[in-house]
Specification:
The protein has about 400 residues and is of the alpha/beta class. The protein folds into two domains: about 1-140, Phosphohistidine domain (Glucose Oxidase, domain 1); about 150-408, Rossmann fold. The protein has helices at about 70-80, 95-110, 190-200, 210-225, 230-245, 255-260, 270-280, 295-305, 315, 325-335, 350-360, 395-405; strands at about 1-5, 5-10, 15, 20-25, 35-40, 45, 60-65, 90, 115, 130-135, 140, 175-180, 285-290, 310, 345, 365, 390. α5 (about 230-245) packs across α6 (about 255-260). The protein is globular and about 65 Å long.
Length: about 400
């Protein structure tokens, strides 16, 4: 074990290799996943366990060992499939049953839940709330000032909470910004409509913009969940076929190919390039996007900045709201010396971004690009209840908040 400031690095024995970064959840006693964890919710359901009711989803699970049935392997594999599994599991002693479940999940679903033996687990070195990064045989802890990485201060962005006890959000507390791209930096709804309208006109599909965007959102999310490793252009081509079926129309190969290749034509929001140029002077900037790398390169040219890291669906082997993008981004930022509590995730989509980011313990800023719309969520599916830590209507407004805070 080595220490450097508030960072602690532990040596570990790798049972299943992988990378992960998130907030630790330490269980006081061993847990049998079979009958002890609900794979549909990720909640501990063993009524005899002292931490009954806690949720392991999106956390780095730390426990002395598992116990009980060999069926725990099937529970872990199912939780990985459903997206309710821990980001990683740290144990005080080896457990072949858990490793088997994680191996099966990796083989069947292409998603990795790293498992490591860390002797310090038994000594209580890791505490719930620590920011943990797993990379190879190294486990790095970053102890934040108030466990969740916040400190007292005045609120500079409007809180979206209904109560007054939300922790203050100070932009100066962060060293890196992770961004969703499409819907946040790129006006994907305008791009989607521009790409779809020639098809609706040709096939006399009568549907208004909001209905078309909502249908797109439903079809895209279904496709991404069913085909997590499919390239994004393939997803888009399939979505057009789904829209055609829903509206009693057809879509030719040429029309599907044109829609699949349209991402590079989607416009940037007018404020994106200038705001990013300003923020680049103060933060490391990272993209976590559901498109492919080739499509993003066209969009990046419109944004005018060089990002410190780019994580796409190609890299993650999954689509958000799965946690893979965030795990990779946090691991890369950790290599740059940025801990999880120093990261602010900036995004428009509650469904794709704020829900998984908050599950990982990240602070989030909602760029509510649809604040002036009367109803609906557009191309974004409705999300589970989530409370971002701040809200602004545009990226330019976020940059202005930073200017005011910096000047004050």
């Amino acid at each position: 074990m080595t220490r450097s400031g508030d960072r602690v690095e532990l040596e570990a024995r790798v049972l299943l290799a992988g990378t992960a970064a998130g907030t630790a959840l330490v269980l006081d006693e061993p847990l049998s996943l079979w009958g002890g964890m609900d794979p549909h919710s990720g909640r501990v359901c063993d009524h005899h366990h002292p931490q009954l009711g806690v949720t392991v989803t999106g956390r780095v699970l730390v426990m002395p060992s598992s116990r009980g049935s060999s069926s725990s392997s099937s529970v872990l594999a199912e939780a990985v499939r459903l997206g309710t599994a821990p980001l990683a599991i740290l144990l005080a002693e080896p457990d072949e049953i858990l490793v088997l479940g994680a191996l099966v999940a990796e083989y069947l679903y292409g998603r990795v839940c790293p498992i490591l033996v860390v002797p310090e687990v038994a000594g209580g070195t890791i505490a719930t709330g620590d920011q943990v990064t797993v990379s190879g045989d190294r486990v790095t802890l970053a102890r934040s000032r108030n466990l969740d990485g916040t400190e007292e201060g005045s609120m500079t962005a409007r809180s979206t909470a209904d109560t007054d006890d939300t922790a203050a959000l100070r932009l100066g507390d962060f060293s890196a910004l992770t961004f969703d791209c499409y819907g946040t930096l790129i006006d994907w709804e305008a791009g989607i409509l521009a790409a779809l309208r020639p098809w609706t006109a040709a096939h006399r599909v009568e549907v208004d913009d909001e209905e078309l965007l909502a249908a797109f959102g439903r079809a895209e999310s279904r496709r991404q969940a069913a085909q997590p490793t499919a390239p994004y252009p393939e997803i888009l081509a399939g979505v057009l076929g789904d829209l055609a079926t829903e509206h009693g129309a057809t879509a030719s190969r040429e029309e599907a190919a044109a829609f699949a290749g349209s991402v590079g034509d989607w416009p940037a929001f007018p404020d994106s390039a200038e705001a990013l140029a300003y923020l680049k002077r103060h933060y490391r900037l990272v993209i976590v996007s559901n498109v492919d790398r080739a499509s993003f390169r066209h969009s990046n040219a419109k944004l005018g900045v060089t990002f410190d890291a780019v994580v796409t669906a190609d890299d993650a082997g999954a689509y958000k709201p799965a946690p893979n993008h965030f795990q990779l981004a946090l691991a890369q930022l950790a290599d740059m010396g940025v801990a999880g509590h120093q990261v602010l995730h900036v995004a428009q989509s509650l469904y794709h971004d704020h829900v998984p980011a908050k599950r990982l313990g990240l602070k989030t800023m909602w760029i509510n690009r649809r604040a002036d719309r009367a109803k609906g969520s557009g191309a974004t599916p409705a999300a589970a209840p989530v409370t971002p830590d701040g809200e602004v209507p545009t990226l330019a407004a976020l940059a202005e908040l930073h200017r005011q805070e910096h000047a004050g």
